[in-house]
Amino acid sequence: MQLTQASPQGGTAFALPGDLQTPLRVAIMDSDSGFLLVLSKRLESLDWQHRMLPFKVSAAKLVALELDVLIVDLASLGSGRWKWLERLCAAEPEFGIVICTGTSTVSERVRALRLGVDDWLSKPCHPEELIARVESVGAHTRKPVPRSLEPILLGELEIRPAHYQAFVAGRGVGLTRREYQLLELLSDAGGEILGRELIYERLWGYEMTRNDRSVDVFVHKLRRKLKDASPVWDYIHTEFRVGYRLAAERVEKLSSPVELPLAREAEEHERAIALAA
Questions:
Q1: Are 249 and 157 in contact (CB under 8 A)?
Q2: Quick check: 98 pLDDT over 80?
Q3: Which of 7, 158, 188, 225 has the fewest CB atoms within 10 Å, measured from its CB?
């Protein structure tokens, strides 16, 4: 579900107090519309980045979203709630889990905490208490990701993370902030294919909507700049209808006769999207 600017289904980026300087990413799974309305308004007043999730979302999908904290009404998950929670905790998510639900027993709370839940709050509760608990869990579970500043060499291309820029023969390629972020994201994948949805979520911070072509547009622009700066190499390769990968390949060794029509079709598709944007 997409983050929006001014509805109970979305939020915006914000600067956290203290030592948390990047947006805290929160997802909420709850069926109480009144509670959601009050909580969403409070989160929006704080400029928290948040989203509502359906109860059918899988544990694997939740892990892929790279949240900081998940707030979930365990009772709303129905009879399969404990199996679902066990699968989620077994997946070793990096985010914290806060249960905010109705009447419970001591054994239920102990069971959840032993599975790996970080906190449990019983309803009815005040939104300020829930927010304070989420802040506390987020501060403890968030781990700063070390960012290597070592230059990365690919063909004639040199990616310099310390400068947030790419160079060919000592000359800057002239990338925008978003284009550089895309290049570094592809580089970090080590040649593996990254899907369009994953790229979108990493760069824009929320889930890609249907028929959104922003990733294709930025890939086309980045590819064109890299080609102008380093014409004898191809760097960004399209896996048609799947995603993109980064690898330095000389032009004369780019594709076999079988692969070439597919590569040309994919690039023509991206070019048409970029021109229409």
A1: no
A2: yes
A3: 7
For residue 141, pLDDT beyond 70:
no
pTM greater than the 0.90 cutoff: no
Q: How far apart are CA 124 and CA 119, in angstroms?
A: 16
- CA angle (50, 55, 56) in 5-degree steps: 120
Q: What is the mean pLDDT of residues 208-227?
A: 88
d(CA 270, CA 276): 10
Q: Is the pLDDT of residue 167 over 90?
A: yes
CA distances from 164 to 116, 168, 179, 251 (A): 38, 14, 10, 26
134 exposed, middle or buried (CB, 10 Å; 0-12, 13-18, 19+)? buried
Strands 243-250 and 194-195: antiparallel
Q: How far apart are CA 172 and CA 127, in angstroms?
A: 49
Do residues 236 and 246 touch, judged by C-beta distance below 8 A? yes
Please report the DSSP string for 51-88 in residue order.
Answer: EE--TT--HHHHHHTT-SEEEE-GGGGGGGHHHHHHHH
All residues at 6 or more sequence positions from 176 whose CB lies less than 8 Å from its CB, including other chains:
none
Distance between CA atoms of residues 197 and 26, nearest Å:
19
Cβ-contact 76, 54 below 8 angstroms: no
Give the model confidence (pLDDT) of 48-65 as tens digits.
778 888 887 877 778 777
